[in-house]
Amino acid sequence: MTSPGDAAPVRPPPSFSPGVPRVASKTRYPNQRRDSSPALDSDLVESRIASSPPQPPLSATAAELPIRSASPYARSVRSSTPQLTRSSLGSPTDGRFDGPDDIRSLIIRSFSPVVGVYASVDTDELVRQKGFQGGFWELIRPFGENVPGKIVVRDSVGASRGWEDFGVRFVDLGGHPETSESQNSLSQLEAALEKQLESPDNPLGGVLRPKDFLSFPTTSPLYKSFLRQLLSVETPTPHETFRHPVASVIVISSRNTSPLETLRRLYADTSSGDRRQPEWVHPEYLRYYVLVHDEDRDDITESTKLYDQMKRHFGLHCHLLRLRSNQCVVTDDDSCQIPESEWLSPSERLSGRSEPLVDLDTDGLPYLFESDVTAIKAFVRELVAQSVIPYMENRVTVWNDQVASRRRGISGRFMSMSRRWAGFGSGSRSSLIGSGGGISGNFDLNHGYYKPDVPEAVLRKMADFAFMLRDWKLSASTYELLRSDYANDKAWKYHAGVHEMCAVSMLLNPLAMPGKTKIDDINQMVETACYSYMTRCSDAPNALRSLTLAMELLKSRGGSGIESAAKWAMRAMDLGLVGSIGQALFSERISACYASRNPIHGVKWGSRHRKAGMWSVLAADLWLRLGNPSLASAALEEAERLYADIMDSNGLFPMPDMQTFVDNLRHSVRMSYFEARGLDIGEDTAPADPLETLETEETSEKLNKRNHRKSLINNPVETGGFNIGQEDDNPANDDFERA
Amino acid sequence: MSYYFTILSPTDVPLFNIAFGTSKSGGDGIARFRFPDTAQYMNQFIIHSSLDIVEEAQWMNGNLYLKHVDTYPPASAYISAFLAPSGARFLLLHQPPQLPSTATGSGSSSLLGAGFSASALGGGSSSRASSSSIAANPTSPQTEEAVRQFMNEVYEVYVKTVMSPFYRQGMEIKSPVFRTRVTAAGRKWL
Amino acid sequence: MTQPRHSAMLSISNTNPIPIANDKQQPPSTQIQNLASTGLRVPSNRKTIYDRHLNRTRNAELSRAGFAFLFAEMVTYAQRRVTGIQDLERRLNEQGYPLGLRLLDLLYYRTMSSSTSSSLSSSSTSAAPPNRPLRILPLLHLIHGPLWRLLFNRPADALEHSVSPDTPNEYMITDNDPLVNTYISVPKEMSMLNCAAFVAGIIEGVCDGCGFEAKVTAHNQPTEMWPGRTVFLVRFGESVMEREKVLERAGVK
Q1: Which positions ≥6 away from C71 have C-beta within 8 Å?
Q2: A594 with A730, same domain?
Q3: Which partner from A78, A95, A478, A502 sits 20 to 30 angstroms from A253, CA to CA?
């Protein structure tokens, strides 16, 4: 802590500068009141929205494309070839709202396919030598989160779309996640946020928040962190398959003496041995075989020979990854710091190394040789583009043909009423026929899950795959199909999940701009999801997730969705799903929701700035109670920005109680701000005092100054003859004395 | 049911404020809001924030009485609006009493005023009040009708005030007779 | 003076002189509810303005002579220390403006409290209370019909829209023989003056009260048959015109 003497002059937090002129006085007519800035803003917004490239009609796109073979091998090189016609299309999220870093993209990326990692002992040994105690998984994990380059995905009607922000999530197949975690993950989340706030040099707690040139507030980093952690819950559950592995990487190294046998043994472990997934996880998933070649110690010709052998035995899903086994230190010429993993769950953040200890090289983020980084990136890209995506596309196509289309047809609709009776008839895959033993369809009441091969589970998995491939049209319709099934079976958690994801899919689908009725449908689904999660399953984390997703996506939809968005955020607070930091964050978020609603062009109504301002003030109050004056100050500053054209020419609220409250809040924020800096309050506040007294004087007389008409003729009442009460302060009004 | 009634000038200056409780079904006419005494400013914040909606509804609907226009869910505060033709806004915030059973123990939410006064509200009076039709459902037709009658009566008294040559548009209404009349209207209808 | 009756002025002069319970007579700082302790001057019959019925005088009429004297005095008052005709008209306008605001409230109150009455039936004949005008035309009809009837016991004589494409925001309300000018003959050197600027102020008050920013002026437009013919030019502000477009798109009538 620096002493006041030698410190640079303390800049007061922005909201304390009392001399800031407010926006011109409020008249009743917006065009006089304000300069053209609102119109400018909305124009800019419109142009930004309009700048997102138009999408070709799907039918036309589909017609040009050849019918795809179902086999992933046939076109495994497709994704990496550069002449892709549609790769020039931006992804629908590009430039649409806040740029690539926006919340929508974050939500989409949080539902990335999961790829399990299972490495042989010798591989982990090699990687540990490089300084990664967690083994091979820890080494490649950060690189999966954003696959370099554009990933092209084809949807169910054959249209291709390129995505810049595609990613996969690597999980350690070995470490079985403890199941008790999800219960207290909300309190962990709160604790993690607290830790982040408290860490001394954390940029998240800082006063300054970046504002873009339109002075629209960007999302606070702390909130983004909250959202990321909320969406990072790693425990797989039966009711949704997002955390079930889509593929698993089986890794050996060039040090292995019996490589093929080891690969077979590792495979056996994942399918029937101790690395087997729980029985509600579909046992069939893609296996991908990797040979790690030790560049520093082993002979590349040997490894190449082994690699060819692997390809002969295991097919094309193989990769030769050439890594150096020496540890890289920061002083090495081509050292590269590996990026921090973006998707850390709350528990990882709590136990993680957010504060570097003494030795940066060993305990901070580790370093890698640049050649290693390039090799890993190439490996991840090849894995995703040539194996994982085609595999998923293929599964979606197959399941769509074999299961979903039956349900969608006319007969399917009848069948859904009496599914048991018809079963799935002579399906080509016998495994798809429901076991049919239970009284209530295929739902195993005792264990509370569907077996992975029954139609209900397969459809869910297919919808989840489509969702992860960002084909939200297909996923929405599939989820919709499932809603009644789960309700009939009283599979409440499935029921909640499918409502949640149906609403999310509809909101994410960029082609369907929902009208009022659509928003009502979505609200109904969110309501159902929340009720099922909370009341029927007491699953608070998922309830919070569904409310938060609904809020964010409705917000990004704009228009009448804003009201619903704010409503869901308030619901989350009301249900007590968030802790005290979360309350403050959500208050800010509600404010942001309301603030994002712009007035209708040409008239003064349509915005929600008063509501937004109120929530910012409430957030400031909450931050202050949490002992964080700098965040309180930021929220207060935001409130003043929002209230700017509500307040009168003196910068005062029309309502006295509000004014008093905000004045007190401002004062307390300033006090605790200086206290937190350890400054002597007495001398620092002295210069500000005259301004403050000035302000209170204005308060006392402001009521008399208001009058009704602010239009063309200035102050008719005061200059006219009718105001008895104001002779003394209005010299123009001396007619009465003279008369 | 607790009420906070305010008259706002076209420039949002409050001309008149009054807080009162229901007198129906054995209510004693005393307001018991869900905020603690130190947080009564919330009433003004909520009223003020509802102006966003009122201003929008004002131009979509030509009625004087706009019915229930806005809700502040964290405190279940409902706002009804009446627009005097010359631009003054009559806003009534009504808040059903908090039933002891609905006081979910989320201590954190009380920071926003939602969960405060469960203990302050005696179980007896609140349950009696909530049995009346008006308090039971703030958006029911009966409530809308009762509020309409209240608003009409206040409007009459307001016109009388406005007609006085000593009253200018935009001045605070300080007349004790006016206050008595509004209180009486509240007792009669709400 | 065969028809010396004037209802609206009466209603105002009737309620005005009894401002008993008004705040200006109590010290502003001590706002105490107790009537006895405020030092309010309560008339001996204990009746305040709040005890009087607003509709009792709705059909009562006033001596035209009384009105003429009152208005003459108002013009004289406004004339003090004016710098010119425009200044005088501005003052008359400002005297009318608060009246317009009040009349608006009274007008709606009277229609609401006796919706069977036909005196305001130009906009709607149904029993439901009339709507606030949201668009320009209903507002002008309100002025042309009910307001004029309340003030002068007859509707105005014409309502026109500017035909010039440059001034779509201009409307004209014509009164062939304005009551306020009946007993006023303007001196030659002030021939531009029209004392109906007072009525223009009333109209402006009504427009503004309804949320239509407007500037209203009175102009002499004599014809052979009507030497006192006066045109009230209503010019709406830009914000009103913008709003018209939005409301038109939204289908608001």
Answers
A1: C180, C184, C195, C198
A2: no
A3: A78
User: For A456-479, what is each residue's pLDDT tens digit?
Assistant: 888 999 999 999 999 998 999 899
Instruction: Say what the pTM is.
Output: 0.76
Cβ-based contacts under 8 A for chains B and C: 115
Asked if residues B2 and B94 have their Cβ atoms less than 8 Å apart, the reply is yes
Q: Is A604–C239 a contact, with Cβ atoms under 8 angstroms apart?
A: yes
- ipTM value of the model? 0.84
Nearest CA among A375, A286, A376, A389 for reference residue A76: A389
Angle made by CA atoms A241, A246, A250, in degrees to the nearest 5: 140
Gyration radius (Cα) of chain B, Å: 16
* C103 against A709, higher pLDDT: C103
Predicted pLDDT of residue B135: 53
If asked whether residues A328 and A289 sit together in one domain, one would say yes
Sequence-ordered list of residues with C-beta below 8 angstroms from that of C131, at least 6 positions apart, any chain: B62, B63, B64, C123, C124, C138
**Token digits for B32?**
């018991």
**Domain range spanning residue A719?**
707-739
C140 residue type, one letter = L
- Average pLDDT over chain C reads 77
Please report, as a single letter, which amino acid is at residue A524.
Q
In one-letter notation, the amino acid at residue A395 is: R
**Interchain pair A708, B87: CB under 8 A:** yes
| DSSP sequence for B145-178 | HHHHHHHHHHHHHHHHHHHSTT--TT-----HHH
As a whole number of angstroms, the distance between CA A645 and CA A652 comes to: 11
- Contact assessment for residue A368 and residue A127, using Cβ atoms and an 8 Å cutoff: no
Q: Which H or E run contains A332?
A: none
Residue A42 inside a domain? The answer is no
Chain B residues near residue C33 by CB distance under 8 angstroms:
176, 179-180
Domain range enclosing C18: 7-51
Same structural domain for residues C199 and C157?
A: yes
Low-confidence ranges of chain C (pLDDT < 70): 1-46, 113-129
- Does the CB of B43 have a partner CB in chain A at under 8 Å? yes
Domain assignment of residue A77, yes or no? no
Last-in-domain residue among A391, A409, A443: A391
Is A482 contained in some domain?
A: no
Q: Give the number of domains in chain C.
A: 2
- Contact yes or no for B111 and A574 at CB 8 A: no
Closest residue in C to B58 (Cα) is C134
Query: Same domain for A647 and A735?
Result: no
Give the mean model confidence (pLDDT) for residues A654-674: 88
Domains of chain B: 2-189 (3.30.450.70)
Residues A630 and A735 in one domain: no
Residues C81 and C40 in one domain: no
pLDDT in tens, A34-45: 333 333 344 443
| Domain membership flag for residue C207 | yes
Cβ-based burial of A177 (10 A; exposed 0-12, middle 13-18, buried ≥19): middle
Cβ <8 Å between A711 and C211 = no
In a domain? residue A656: yes
Residues C18 and C75 in one domain: no
